[in-house]
Design a protein that fits this description.
13-stranded mixed β-sheet; alpha/beta; 326 residues; 11 helices; binds S-adenosylmethionine; 33% helix; binds iron/sulfur cluster
Length: 326
């Protein structure tokens, strides 16, 4: 099992398959975003090879993300390859859900374990406002397809001050009353290309929790208040599902971090919110052996930074969230 310099077990790889997207969520990227040229992205063959190496190094969990990972034509084959690696226990996907109507079944057949769908509001007009042109109906159809395919599902929402942080958030939380679903609220984080908007529109966990409790009743802590992954989980009175808060800004969970990220252009990003990266694409395209790649990956993991430094206004400058793989 790879250990970093702070003795944390690093066994979770998040792979961004593309920085491109079919939406332009206002908190994630500017409307006129320039995406990388295809030649800059890792090929499927390069990804197959890296996935095999990470599994051999002891990685247990792999998540495909982006940008929008369902835009990648080889997604199903990549999931199948990851799910077949000895030692890999969980292969999951984070998506905006637009394409799941078509893809949920083939992904389940390929061995996908679970899907996180991003859904910031149930209101069609507000959804269009937040995504710039999306249709919430497509996401809801995708969610139905995920459930029909028997995949585990979590819904993720990013509350944005003055946009979807009151009625919309309450409506999403209310979904847990009747459905055995997890709805998780994520604090918006600042990145290079959008930091002004992001820091100006953050809704802190304490504030949102108070608002949800005032509308829906007391939130009972689950798991004795301990983190479930990166989320603190709660249940509304009598609810079937659970509500989570992922609060990297006001309650960093760096001490329990077990992940690194592979960007679509082949950089191993050691912390979401720090710019330190290792270039695996250059090694791959320069003819490195498997042994040389494993050594480079191990060395990069070893120097993984302790955590972010947002409290000291250190904001990642090199990439936005969609270019890293959230
Ligand atoms: N396109 C896919 C999606 O939306 O699920 C996958 C990539 S997206 C970058 C992954 C997650 O990051 C989404 O849940 C999205 O809402 C969230 N996200 C985007 N920008 C963010 C930011 N600045 N802070 C916190 N979460 C963000
Ligand atoms: Fe695209 Fe996901 Fe970013 Fe929205 S949050 S613009 S769907 S990458």
């Amino acid at each position: 099992m790879p250990l970093d310099q702070y003795q944390r077990d690093i066994d979770y790889l998040r792979i961004s398959l593309t920085d491109a997207c079919n939406l332009r969520c206002v908190y994630c990227m500017p409307e006129h975003m320039a995406f990388r040229r295809p030649a800059e992205l890792l090929t499927d063959a390069e990804l197959f090879r890296l996935i095999t190496l990470f599994a051999r190094l002891g990685f247990r969990k792999i998540r495909f993300t982006g940008g929008e990972p369902t835009l990648r034509p080889g997604l199903v084959q990549l999931v199948r390859h990851a799910a077949r690696q000895p030692g890999v226990r969980q292969v999951s996907l984070t998506t905006n859900g637009l394409m799941l109507d078509q893809l949920a079944r083939p992904l389940a057949d390929a061995g996908l374990s679970s899907v996180n769908v991003s859904l910031d509001t149930l209101d069609p007009a507000r959804f269009r406002e937040l995504t710039r042109w999306g249709n919430v109906r497509d996401v809801l159809e995708g969610i139905n397809a995920v459930e029909a395919a028997g995949l585990r599902l979590k819904l993720n929402a990013v509350p944005i001050r003055g946009v979807n942080d009151t009625d919309d958030a309450i409506a999403l939380a209310r979904l847990t009353l009747e459905h055995d679903r997890q709805v998780r609220f994520i604090e918006v984080m600042p990145f290079a290309n959008n930091a002004g908007f992001q820091t100006g529109h953050i809704v802190r966990e304490t504030e949102l929790r108070a608002r949800l409790e005032a509308a829906l009743g007391p939130l009972e802590p689950l798991h004795a208040g301990k983190l479930d992954g990166e989320a603190r989980m709660f249940r509304l009175p009598g609810a079937r599902g659970a509500i989570g808060f992922i609060s990297p800004v006001t309650s960093p969970f760096c001490a329990a971090c077990n992940r690194v990220r592979l960007t679509a252009d082949g950089r191993l990003r050691l912390c979401l919110l720090r710019d330190d990266e290792g270039d695996l694409r250059e090694l791959l395209r320069g003819g490195a052996t498997d042994q040389e790649l494993e050594t480079a990956i191990g060395a990069a993991i070893h120097r993984k930074p302790w955590g972010h430094n947002l409290a000291s206004d250190l904001i990642p400058a090199s990439r936005g969230m969609s270019e890293i793989g959230g």
